[in-house]
């Protein structure tokens, strides 16, 4: 490993003994419709009922780990790459964001337009940002009649501000002073981010703006690069599930098959990209919420290793496992969006963000695949991936066979201990963090499924539970550090989720009142939780389709600070979609609207 690859808060590498992977059967009943409304009221109010469901959820397994007390509690998994002054002086300099290369119908993109397609038409004068923006607003505004199928994915669009930004971009192109590859490109932002002039509801009927009327740092970076925010997208209420069912504002259906969910909690953003409305959108990956919908909607999703970094200002609910991250219709746009948004914030605004290297000038120093290094190692936990359903496993196996054929790749078997217990610790931590930011009066105003979850998070999670979970986080990070040091360039590869989509089984009853299906939620999170809990970067790549036409994704997770390695990994697997990628059932040809 290069001497330039140094870190702050890097875990002590330590191999933990192999622990057989054994997923316990769970007895969690499914509630929907009016029984859910009644059951939620009982569970919210009666502690004995809460305790019963808590025991059945299997959280006790965390306390069965005998040597957990050897580890100190880790409450924040942020690991900061450090660039030496010598390397910074040699390789740093003016920010230079490389333009994307991909265009529609190249690189397996099928029907998807990219930032390159927008920019070429703007530069030629064929289209203007204002014309594109007006066409999109007619599709995404929920406060105009007749509403379209697409407007369900959007919570709010501040029309005057949007048109002003579009006019400014149009003028720059006309005067030959474009800001660069993102100028005039439409983007969508998940409701979890702060944007000046917009509400922040977190998918609820409550106000989580916290008196803050500023724009989150990462959104500000996109806006400064000329991107046009066409609106805020809907999300699962509080981000507390993985299907994006939201009775408050409506549930966008999967653009590939409307009988399925988009996945949550960033389902509105993934719909916007998956349906072709925008080439780039912002999600927040607190529990895997970027990668699950990106998998179900057939787009790329990145979870960064910056933790809470680039999310400033942070007001209201936050998570030690959360990070804003992009979704995109192409790998190039994913990388472009990340490199712009992940610019370090000023130290006065966010001292942790300020310590990170700039992705456009320094992060390449942390790539094990740059320079003379050719190590590309894929790690597989066999007993873990065996949990995937047959359709998902078939796509995964085809993906691994593809990588075996690529120059420089080696596939190795690895072990990661306490995966079952770790997933419970991850869920417990999220529930406790969200419950700590919601009052009893606010709980009563949540949808029935979240009344159940937040009530249990506030009443059933003990101090012993929470501390044990953070100790387990430290153990897992220590073991991963051992794996990354043993196998330089390691990418741990799994399916993104073990299921080929989540069907809207209950129809309108589920969409009207919500759905409480804890077993399916936990099942859907079986792979994505690890990157969130340990702070590692991860990427979800579309790799195939189910028999019902729902996209299936494959996920790669790598060492802290190695996002650039993941872009290389994704690019090397891009050929998997070249033959099969096709237009979704709900597809918008934006340029044809003009």
From TrEMBL:
MF GO annotations: catalytic activity
InterPro entries xrefs: Amidase, Amidase_CS, Amidase_dom, AS_sf
SUPFAM superfamilies: Amidase signature (AS) enzymes
Domain Amidase: 144-566
Gene3D superfamilies found in the cross-reference section: Amidase signature (AS) domain
UniProt family annotation: Belongs to the amidase family.
Designated name of the protein: Amidase domain-containing protein
Any Pfam family hit: Amidase
Organism: Penicilliopsis zonata CBS 506.65
């Amino acid at each position: 490993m290069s001497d330039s690859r140094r870190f702050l808060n890097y875990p002590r590498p330590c191999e933990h003994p192999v622990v057989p992977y054994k997923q316990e059967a769970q007895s969690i009943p499914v509630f929907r419709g009016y029984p859910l409304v009644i059951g939620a009221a009982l569970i919210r109010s009666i502690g004995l009922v809460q305790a019963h469901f808590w025991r059945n959820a299997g959280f006790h397994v965390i306390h069965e780990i005998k040597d957990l007390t050897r580890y100190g509690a880790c409450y924040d998994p942020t690991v900061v790459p450090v660039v030496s002054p010598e390397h910074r002086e040699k390789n740093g300099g003016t920010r230079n964001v490389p333009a994307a290369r991909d265009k529609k119908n190249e690189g397996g993109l099928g029907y998807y337009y990219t930032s390159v397609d927008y920019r070429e038409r703007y530069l030629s004068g064929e289209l203007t940002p204002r014309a594109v923006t007006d066409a999109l607003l007619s599709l995404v505004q929920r406060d105009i009649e007749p509403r379209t199928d697409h407007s369900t994915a959007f919570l709010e669009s501040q029309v005057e501000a949007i048109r002003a930004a579009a006019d400014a971009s149009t003028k720059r192109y006309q005067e030959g002073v474009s800001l660069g590859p993102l100028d005039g490109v439409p983007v969508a932002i998940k409701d979890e981010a702060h944007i000046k002039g917009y509400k922040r509801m977190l998918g609820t009927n409550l106000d989580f703006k916290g008196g803050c009327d500023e724009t989150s740092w990462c959104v500000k970076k996109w806006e400064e690069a000329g991107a046009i925010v066409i609106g805020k997208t809907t999300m699962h209420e509080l981000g507390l599930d993985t299907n994006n069912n939201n009775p408050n504002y409506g549930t966008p259906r999967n653009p590939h098959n409307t009988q399925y969910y988009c996945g949550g909690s960033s389902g509105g953003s993934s719909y916007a990209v998956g349906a072709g409305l925008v080439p780039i959108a912002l999600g927040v990956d607190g529990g895997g919420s970027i990668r699950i919908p990106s998998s179900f909607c057939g787009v790329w999703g990145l979870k960064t290793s910056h933790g809470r970094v680039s999310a400033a200002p942070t007001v209201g609910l936050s998570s030690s496992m959360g990070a804003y991250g992009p979704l995109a219709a192409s790998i190039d746009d994913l990388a472009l969006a990340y490199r712009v948004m992940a610019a370090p914030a000023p130290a006065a605004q966010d001292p942790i963000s300020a310590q990170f290297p700039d992705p456009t000038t320094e992060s390449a120093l942390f790539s094990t695949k740059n320079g003379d290094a050719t190590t590309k190692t894929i790690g597989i936990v066999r007993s873990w991936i065996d949990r995937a359903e047959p359709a998902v496993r078939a796509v995964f196996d085809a993906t691994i066979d593809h990588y075996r054929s690529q120059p420089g790749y080696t596939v190795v078997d690895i072990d990661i201990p306490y995966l079952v217990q770790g997933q419970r610790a991850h869920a417990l931590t999220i529930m406790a963090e969200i419950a700590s930011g919601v009052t009893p009066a606010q709980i009563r105003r949540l949808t029935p499924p979240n009344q159940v979850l937040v009530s249990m998070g506030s009443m059933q999670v003990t101090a012993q539970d929470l501390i044990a979970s953070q100790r387990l986080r430290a153990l897992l990070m220590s073991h991963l550090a051992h794996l990354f040091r043993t196998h330089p360039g390691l990418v741990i590869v799994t399916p993104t989720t073990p299921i080929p989509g989540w069907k809207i089984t209950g129809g309108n009853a589920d969409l009207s009142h919500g759905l409480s299906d804890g077993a399916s939620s936990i099942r859907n999170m079986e792979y994505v939780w690890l990157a969130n809990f340990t702070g590692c970067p991860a990427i979800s790549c579309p790799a195939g389709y189910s028999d019902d036409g729902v996209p299936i994704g494959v996920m790669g997770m790598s060492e802290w600070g190695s996002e650039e390695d993941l872009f290389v990994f994704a690019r090397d697997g891009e050929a998997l979609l070249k033959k099969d990628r096709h237009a979704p059932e709900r597809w918008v040809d934006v340029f044809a609207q003009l």
